[in-house]
UniProtKB/TrEMBL annotation:
<feature type="transmembrane region" description="Helical">
    <location>
        <begin position="144"/>
        <end position="163"/>
    </location>
</feature>
<feature type="transmembrane region" description="Helical">
    <location>
        <begin position="110"/>
        <end position="132"/>
    </location>
</feature>
<keyword id="KW-1133">Transmembrane helix</keyword>
<feature type="transmembrane region" description="Helical">
    <location>
        <begin position="399"/>
        <end position="419"/>
    </location>
</feature>
<protein>
    <recommendedName>
        <fullName>Cytochrome oxidase subunit I profile domain-containing protein</fullName>
    </recommendedName>
</protein>
<keyword id="KW-0812">Transmembrane</keyword>
<feature type="transmembrane region" description="Helical">
    <location>
        <begin position="215"/>
        <end position="236"/>
    </location>
</feature>
<feature type="transmembrane region" description="Helical">
    <location>
        <begin position="12"/>
        <end position="37"/>
    </location>
</feature>
<keyword id="KW-0472">Membrane</keyword>
<feature type="transmembrane region" description="Helical">
    <location>
        <begin position="374"/>
        <end position="393"/>
    </location>
</feature>
<feature type="transmembrane region" description="Helical">
    <location>
        <begin position="242"/>
        <end position="264"/>
    </location>
</feature>
<feature type="transmembrane region" description="Helical">
    <location>
        <begin position="49"/>
        <end position="72"/>
    </location>
</feature>
<feature type="transmembrane region" description="Helical">
    <location>
        <begin position="276"/>
        <end position="300"/>
    </location>
</feature>
<feature type="transmembrane region" description="Helical">
    <location>
        <begin position="84"/>
        <end position="104"/>
    </location>
</feature>
<feature type="transmembrane region" description="Helical">
    <location>
        <begin position="328"/>
        <end position="347"/>
    </location>
</feature>
<feature type="transmembrane region" description="Helical">
    <location>
        <begin position="183"/>
        <end position="203"/>
    </location>
</feature>
Length: 430
């Protein structure tokens, strides 16, 4: 496959993405855990910004581009630009951290504006390189392209949020621009990425490939359209509409969870226990929990105007926190760990995207010891995640904080586990 990058450059960039992104995730989890243990409002306030500003942008700007370029090689990867993206995202992370710590909302707005400019670059390149017909031809590419569009909108939310906090009496910015709205909008592109990946590397491999294509094409319209419709009915305060669309999405998630479980059982029986697939099954299980908590959240938020604080009855805030953390620490992080355990070893082995494009990235690329450690990592993350969510209900602050810290340590295990795998070492050799 034609590529504009050298083997070593792509390997190096993907390693940098791995190191920076999971350092950010761990810092966010440490911030939440220590924030609870030390009762530190600053850490509690800043830790979701770390996740969304840092990992949210890095995942779509770099990792999502690998997935898209693996399907359409004409979307060439520029190593200089990718390094620049990493640097600018880290700069935005520093800006937002200072903005929150020193109460400088205009600095937050500046970070959002800068990130909008950053995201506009690959979006423009994609839309001028691929025709609409070509985008729609590949189901997974539809998901990947909309990820970038949603990320641009999320950064617009960060920009307007900063302006609203700087000028609270200005009536130009709509009432629905809030921290919750920004975090909600930032989670959508990450979720859509996973859906496209699930189709590309799991369902498309089934014997009923044409049926899978039709169903995932339909799910694209239900999921993306449902999310957009959900935002509208939230703003309208339409309780019945919120309940209908949330239940429809939940039933879709249940179908995904069941069918992926069947796929996983057949895969493990006929091939080997791939930890990436187990991570993604765990992610789907947390997505089901996210959906269920979301429905409860709507039920108890009835009559509360969107944008008000708290967004739910005070005695039911554990539902809101369980909903958000099931999505972030469960669905999104677990799924991306699974995706990384597939994509990065394929890049390290080939030095380019060829294995993702026409090979078999689900073959056994990782050492047995690496895979065993990955399952240990998954077990720790699952236990820490479940305990963390249970702690919101029980109100045990010590357990909540400790589970956050344990989760952060388990997330960092990904770096040590992959970097020391033989396939990564082989990438260093000429």
């Amino acid at each position: 496959m034609t590529s504009a990058i050298s083997d070593n450059t792509l390997r190096g960039i993907s390693r940098t993405f791995l190191a920076v992104s999971f350092t950010v995730i761990s810092l966010a989890a440490f911030g939440g855990g220590f924030g609870v243990l030390a009762n530190n409002p600053l850490l509690l306030k800043i830790h979701p910004y770390l996740f969304f500003v840092g990992f949210g942008n890095l995942a779509i700007l770099l990792f999502n581009r690998y997935l898209t370029a693996a399907i359409y090689p004409e979307l060439r990867i520029d190593p200089v630009r990718q390094r620049m993206f990493i640097g600018l995202v880290v700069l935005a992370l520093v800006m937002v951290t200072i903005a929150v710590a020193a109460d400088l909302p205009l600095l937050k707005a500046a970070a959002g504006l800068m990130l909008m400019g950053v995201v506009a670059v690959p979006l423009y390149e994609i839309l001028t390189t691929l025709s609409v017909a070509k985008i729609w031809k590949e189901v997974s590419v539809r998901y990947y392209i909309f990820d970038v569009v949603f990320l641009l909108n999320a950064n617009l939310g960060l920009f307007t949020l900063g302006l609203k906090e700087a000028f609270p009496d200005n009536g130009i910015i709509p009432f629905f621009v809030t921290q919750s709205a920004y975090f909600l909008g930032s989670s959508f592109p990450l979720s859509i990425s996973v859906m496209g990946f699930l189709y590309a590397y799991a369902w498309r491999r089934t014997d009923r490939m044409e049926l899978a294509k039709k169903l995932f094409s339909l799910w694209f319209y239900i999921f993306v359209g449902g999310v957009l419709y959900f935002l509208i009915v939230i703003l309208m305060g339409d309780y019945l509409g919120m309940m209908l669309i949330s239940h429809l999405l939940t039933f879709g998630v249940m179908a995904l969870l069941y069918t992926f479980g069947v796929f996983l059982r057949n895969w493990f029986r006929d091939n080997f226990a791939h930890p990436a697939l187990a991570f993604m099954l765990g992610g789907l299980a947390f997505l089901f929990a996210t959906s269920a908590f979301g429905i409860l959240n709507i039920y108890y938020a009835k009559g509360i105007l969107f944008g008000s604080y708290p967004p739910i009855r005070g005695d039911k805030m554990w539902i809101y926190h369980s909903h958000t953390h099931s999505a972030l620490l469960g669905w999104i992080t677990l799924s991306f760990i699974g995706m990384i355990y597939i994509v990065l070893p394929a890049i390290q082995k080939a030095g380019d995207l060829e294995l993702l494009h026409s090979g078999d990235p689900l073959e056994q690329l990782l050492d047995v010891r690496t895979m065993n450690r990955a399952f240990v990592q998954l077990s720790i993350i699952l236990v820490a995640g479940v305990v963390l969510i249970g702690s919101f209900f029980s109100g045990q602050q010590l357990v909540l904080g400790m589970s956050g810290v344990v989760y952060a340590v388990a997330a960092l295990m990904l770096l040590r586990n992959l970097i020391h795998d033989p396939v990564f070492d082989a990438g260093d050799k000429p």
